[in-house]
Inverse folding.
């Protein structure tokens, strides 16, 4: 069973059989917890293997969801959670489209992976999102270039629930060491920048977002 920094996961994840690899991950969780910025270790399905307290704090305001919690699967969170746009600013263009591009690439490498295929089926169930994936995404990739799709080095906007950060930007940094990469994992750290809006503006934006759709317009709201 995989562990998050700060406690045991409630949902089991695939975990290396090697005792040495398990010990490495447990020590790596301790290292991750010492990082002040949100940092997360993901597998090829974007299942969260390890995450630090700063990562959990970033998403502490999101509501419950049966399949798209940020601490379980980050891909599903970005695409399907109705509260994702409350934290991930410019949600559709700066977060969803890059994630859709990564999903397409992952499906090329792992065509028969049932978890990735399930995400693809969920996309296909919504006509607008299916059109975005099939027609809009290739056009967007051609327009911005392959480099803009990559997470490492990308600067993306977010709204942190802690007013000391507030509405700001983060640089996504790939910090994957060889040992994690050999296990099929990737580590991403969101390096936060100082707040670029006063707290009052952040509050107005948050209230306004809650009064509108609150989730990606081409993604169906979760069933109640």
């Amino acid at each position: 069973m995989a562990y998050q920094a700060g406690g045991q996961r409630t949902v089991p994840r695939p975990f290396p059989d090697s005792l040495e690899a398990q010990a490495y991950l447990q020590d790596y969780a301790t290292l991750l917890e010492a990082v002040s910025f949100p940092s997360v270790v993901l597998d090829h399905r974007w299942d969260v293997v390890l995450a630090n307290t700063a990562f959990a704090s970033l998403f502490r305001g999101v509501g419950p969801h049966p399949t798209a919690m940020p601490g379980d699967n980050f891909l599903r969170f970005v695409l399907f959670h109705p509260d994702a746009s409350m934290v991930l600013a410019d949600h559709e263009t700066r977060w969803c489209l890059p994630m859709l591009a990564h999903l397409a690439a992952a499906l090329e490498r792992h065509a028969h992976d049932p978890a990735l295929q399930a995400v693809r089926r969920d996309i296909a169930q919504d006509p607008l999102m299916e059109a975005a994936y099939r027609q809009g995404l290739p056009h967007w990739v051609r327009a911005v270039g392959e480099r803009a799709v990559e997470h490492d080095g990308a600067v993306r906007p977010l709204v942190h629930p802690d007013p000391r950060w507030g509405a700001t930007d983060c640089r996504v940094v790939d910090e994957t060491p060889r040992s994690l990469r050999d296990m099929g994992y990737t580590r991403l750290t969101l390096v936060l920048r100082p707040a670029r809006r006063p707290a009052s503006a952040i509050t107005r934006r948050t209230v306004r977002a809650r009064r509108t759709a609150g989730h990606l317009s081409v993604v169906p709201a979760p069933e109640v």
Observations:
- Residues 7 and 29 are 10 Å apart (CA to CA).
- The chain has one domain: 3-211.
